[in-house]
Design brief:
By secondary structure, the protein is of the alpha/beta class. 28% of the residues lie in helices and 21% in strands. The protein folds into 2 domains: 135 residues, Cytidine Deaminase, domain 2 (3-Layer(aba) Sandwich), CATH 3.40.140.10; 213 residues, Dihydrofolate Reductase, subunit A (3-Layer(aba) Sandwich), CATH 3.40.430.10. It is built from 12 helices and 14 strands.
């Protein structure tokens, strides 16, 4: 590994510490005379960007003539809560900037690089770009499409069942897998289920780990059938957003709103929730990543609507069987194999006694 790549890898590791959604995760390292003199990362939306944080951690004489390694193109636009980074970089006397990738935000998208070069600062782009893009895949999806990045999580048996014929599903996957799911919840902006899951399991949908981030709980409930006593609505567990269709009780809507629930009517032609409209509405609320946890009908509808970006299937060494036992992707299904959804390369990982299969949907498929 080259010295430059080592500096960028350090910046990437710093970026992973932040929770700045809907902003991108960014890390920055300042190097002078081949030594790291300062580092920083974007901790939270509204707080200083990584480049500013790093420069504040350095002395003025350390900045003059230094090289800045940053995981994303420095910003130049002003219509946001924090000042742009480019003028501060120029004024600090930094002579070279190495950024892993351009910022796809139309407000930036090369403008920051151009402004730095205009100020006679050397700029190199593309070091560790693939890793940087993976780090900010949710932000890239959000800023380029106006939609959140959706990961569909499924716990299923070896024969592809997510519950028995009676609906029992506790627990198909092992303890290690369930612990990993808690971490996944904590790393997403929101966790989403359908009303069927709420009525059957009465889940909290929280992240049950110490000092963990509780995601926003999102429920697809066309007719607002959710009981006001549902665990997911209890105080202290974080924000709840419900997407509903056309035929719902206005009195029930007001009762939910009095509990602090955000109700977003997004009716489709059939009166049920238009999932594409709902995803757009969630993105407008600053939600860039969603962990979709069920159930079967919602999973099928999301897949059929082209709204799932990644599948994470936890496969347990169990056989359930039964024609009435549900599978992960419900709905009508396809008629011929040629219409099957093709996923990208499958990544395989052992989690305790289970196997985790992860596959992405090619971005240009839909």
């Amino acid at each position: 590994m080259t010295v430059e790549k080592r500096f960028m890898k350090l910046a990437l590791s710093l970026a992973r510490k932040g929770r700045p959604s809907p902003n991108p995760k960014v890390g920055a390292v300042i190097v002078k005379d081949d030594k790291v003199v300062a580092r920083g990362y974007h901790k939270k939306a509204g707080e200083p960007h990584a480049e500013i944080e790093a420069m504040r951690n350095a002395k003025p004489e350390q900045l003059n003539g230094a090289t800045l390694y940053t995981t994303l193109e420095p910003c130049v636009h002003k219509n946001k809560r924090t000042p742009p980074c480019v003028p501060a970089i120029i004024n600090a006397g930094i002579k070279r900037v190495v950024c892993a990738m351009k910022d796809p935000n139309p407000e930036v998208n090369g403008k920051g690089i151009a402004a730095l070069r205009k100020a006679n600062i050397e700029v190199d782009v593309g070091l560790c770009e693939e890793e940087a893009r993976r780090l900010n895949e949710s932000y890239i999806r959000y800023i380029t499409t106006g939609l959140p990045f959706v990961t569909m999580k499924v716990a299923m048996s070896l024969d592809g069942k997510i519950a028995t014929k009676s609906g029992d599903s506790k627990w198909i996957s092992g303890e290690e897998s369930r612990r990993l799911v808690m971490k996944m919840r904590g790393s997403h902006d929101a966790v989403m289920v359908g009303i069927g899951t709420v009525l059957k399991d009465n889940p909290h949908l929280t992240c049950r780990l110490k000092k963990a981030h509780n995601p926003i709980r999102v429920i697809v409930d066309s007719k607002l059938r959710i009981p006001l006593s549902a665990n997911v609505l209890k105080d202290g567990n974080g924000m709840v957003i419900i997407g509903c269709g056309r035929d719902f009780d206005e009195k029930k809507k007001r009762a939910l709103e009095s509990l602090g629930v955000m109700v977003l009517p997004c009716p489709g032609m059939d009166g049920r929730v238009d999932l594409k409209k709902f995803m757009v509405s969630l993105a407008r609320e600053g939600i860039t990543s969603i962990l979709l946890e069920g159930g079967s009908e919602l999973g099928g509808a999301m897949v059929n609507s082209g709204l799932v970006n990644r599948f994470c299937f936890f496969v347990a060494p169990k056989i359930i069987g039964g024609r009435d036992a549900k599978t992960p992707v419900g709905g009508v299904g396809i008629g011929t194999i040629k219409n099957a959804l093709h996923v990208g390369e499958i990544r395989i990982r052992r989690i305790g006694k289970d196997i985790l299969l992860t596959a992405d949907i090619p971005p240009n498929l839909f």
